[in-house]
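Today's session is about reading a structure prediction critically. Students often jump straight to the picture, but the first step is always the sequence itself: look for stretches that repeat, for charged clusters, for runs of hydrophobic residues. Only then move on to the predicted structure, which in these notes is written as discrete structure tokens rather than atom positions. Here is the chain we will use throughout the hour.
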Amino acid sequence: MASPLILASSSPYRRALLQQLHLPFRHAAPRINEEARPGEDAGTLALRLAQEKALALAKEHPKALIIGSDQVAEYEGRILGKPGNRTKAIAQLQACSGNKVTFHTGLSLLDSESGRQASTVETFTVYFRPLTLAQIERYVELEKPYDCAGSFKVEGLGIALFEKLEGTDINTLVGLPLIRLVDLLGEFGINPLKPASKE
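Below is the predicted structure for this chain, in token form.
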């Protein structure tokens, strides 16, 4: 791989997902303003933040392929942020109980040398079971999902919160849609399944 691959994220969840592709990469935290603009919907926000995260590292990594990704949860047209604490996580899960939440995950791949950037948004919808307060409190106690949009970790016990999942790639829900990332990497000449060269 000619250009180094950089993941523009400090998220351990995204790093773990990218490791599944067996491609060498480094990661760095982009510094951007993640506030939504007035009237900006969840999908537009997720796409813009993914693009801005990649661009934020372009000067620091002038000859690299930079992956930006950002996830925004939407419930009844409103954006759900990361709860940050137990009280807010419980409140989020109480609101979501028996309802559906759609996750918009923006993905962007930037060639910092040429300036070429390809971007997309993947959606994934979860349908929550009707949950009692005791069940919600038990879940929050066990997993402490305070840094997760929607207040759950689908890769853990969070799966027990749902009746149904709807989407193309479960990794979208964790924060990095790998199927689409493989597609984008292919557009830039990178194939994780390419046999290693023999010297």
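Discussion point for the tutorial: Strands lie at 5-8, 26-28, 65-75, 78-80, 100-111, 117-128, 162-167.
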